Amino acid sequence: MPELPEVQTVTDHVKPELVGEHILSIEPVWKKVLDNFNAEEAKGKHKVLNVSRRAKFIIIELENFILAVHLRMTGKLYVLSNESPPKHTSAIIHLEGKKNLIFEDTRKFGRIYKYDDLTEINKRHGPEPLEDDFTSDWLLENLKKKKRNIKALLLDQSFLSGLGNIYVDESLWASNIHPNSISCFIPKQKVIQLHNNIRIILSESIKQLGTTFINFTFLNGQSGNYSNELKIFGKQGKPCEKCSNKIKKIKIAGRGTHVCNKCQKKFKS
Length: 269
Hints:
single chain, alpha+beta, eight-stranded antiparallel sheet, two-stranded antiparallel ribbon, elongated
């Protein structure tokens, strides 16, 4: 599933093509793609004021409402000019000019939501890890309040937005924290390292257009290069770059989790 850097990359890609354009209608090629509204509710001439990201949503801000696109597993969002939509198109957002915004989704898990504003999304999501309100003090205070598995907690979008399996594994490895640690027992210095590493890793991934695997590539031929920088995710059976110990893949919170049992310390008391 695309995580914060991949969603940000898609947002940055479509924004210059959409801002100032007018949306005329939304055609649900696959009927379930429109989650909480129907096509009739979006008819009209709606100017695109901005395109941004909140958590793992691409937010298309219009004059009277917003569209929130969640890519889920295999979703792609891009603009086509008078071309036939591809086979796995879930929705076509018709623009006033000779262009359409295509939502392509092979596995059909992606959804488009319609809201008055960001209120509904904000109340279900924690802070953005690259914004100023995500500080090491905030992370320390909120980890201490909870007695939860750190991997599961960082995946919880109501706690912190945008992180998924790849970047949680990478951030915990960079901080020498075992993913089976309990949040409230992680020492202050380790929490500070974790905070810094989350921001560094996400920022670097955005610069490199995210991490591209088989389910996530760009139509224009661009792909994310951060897969070349991964230190632990997908490296099971290979030696850890820090200590040469063999990297293991285990399951935590139902997710495949990569860990070096030698240099990642488990904090449980």
